[in-house]
Amino acid sequence: MNWFQREKDLIFQTYRRQPLVLVKGRGSWVWDEKGARYLDFFSGLAVNNLGHCHPAVVRAAAAQSRVLGHASNVYYTVPQIRLAGELVARSFPGRVFFSNSGAEAVECALKIARRWGASTGGRTDVISFQNSFHGRTLAALTLTGQEKYRKGFDPLVPGIRYAAFNDLESVRRAATKKTGAVFVEPIQGEGGVVPADGDFLAGLRVLCDRNRWLLVFDEVQCGLGRTGRLFAFQSYGVRPDVLVLAKALGGGLPMGATVAARAAAALLGAGDHASTFGGNPVVCSAALAVLKVMDPKFLKSVARKGAILREGLEKLRDAFPGRILSVRGAGLMLGLQLSGPGGALVDALREEGLLANCTQDTVLRLLPPLTVSEAEIRAALRTLGKVFAICWNNRLQTIPC
Ligand SMILES: Cc1ncc(COP(=O)(O)O)c(C=O)c1O
């Protein structure tokens, strides 16, 4: 079967896919339909934080599907309440709304922001950041501070202004009498793996408190252990009013969650928001298993392995001056700022058995599973070194880099 052709015929052509049909995954590895094996430093775009088919997650989801697969939110279900308890206990006091994706979790936060603004004298406008990414539904897209994604979808959602990331002065300039909330990623993922400065997030907290703006952190990509803390905000010591989660939460099953401090959560009452599948018992059971694995010892190991990967990448930066400009990120969310487009490198890495991707065209992004072993990190570093040498030292003319 020519799956590439079938896909072209049958699926909206909205994805620029890499030419691989994946059929199996285990731990840090995936296999294609021809049986070739790849070391996965992409992790389904920061979803497979526990690697592929983690036994605890598979067990929890399978066990729950045998007992009660779906009930709707018309009734109470135990895994959902337990999961909310776990999230609140490990983030900050508040309540949780469950949905199915990052964009939906962002939408919920935006609805809270609108209500927050309405309840504080019509201050319903929101500030988000240039180069941010918050998802593809119309409201999440409007929050996304990148013109290339928004182009051609006007009219977008009103009342959203963009400030420069890591620039408090720009936030002050973007603010108006109608501003009521700020949405920010502690580490911009799609924006090129750019961490917020500590002073910037702390300054945002002060600005929000002074002006009674709601501070919303989108940790869809950088949350859930990626940085070596369960939530990225914990390494900054700056707590948001609303925390947006998705991706890795369901252990590979679709899930979004919006955690809000009690006063903010109370703004959405019965009938104000809903999701048929949100907080489904199977996904919640999988998520409970994910959080159980992510205990303090596990998170420490992420920080340790992140340091090993970063050190190796910094050596590569030094070995290829002028090609790798910098190494950025935190924990196991790292990016190499290249001096030019990295698409051909991604292809060459794949041909050498390593999966990664490029964001912002020139940032090679590495998102290994948090369960990756030190030996796998060293293997990935060897492959990176080999491919950089082939491409940039032009040792092998066959790879078009
Ligand atoms: C920071 C951030 N927010 C929101 C989203 C949207 O998530 P989803 O694709 O699950 O809607 C993404 C997706 O990459 C993201 O990185």
Describe the protein in words.
The chain has 401 residues and is α/β, with parallel strands linked by helices. The protein has 2 domains: 3-53 and 296-392, Alpha-Beta Complex (Aspartate Aminotransferase, domain 1); 55-293, 3-Layer(aba) Sandwich (Aspartate Aminotransferase, domain 2). The protein contains 15 helices and 17 strands. It has helices at 3-10, 43-46, 55-67, 78-90, 102-119, 138-143, 147-150, 168-174, 198-211, 232-236, 262-265, 281-293, 296-319, 343-351, 374-392; strands at 22-26, 29-32, 37-40, 95-99, 125-129, 160-163, 179-184, 187-188, 194-195, 214-218, 242-245, 256-260, 324-330, 333-338, 354-355, 357-359, 363-366. The strands form 4 sheets. The protein has a 7-stranded mixed beta sheet, with helices on both faces. A 4-stranded mixed beta sheet has the order 1-2-3-15. A 4-stranded antiparallel beta sheet has the order 13-14-17-16, covered by helices on one side. Helix 13 packs parallel to helix 15 (374-392). It is globular.
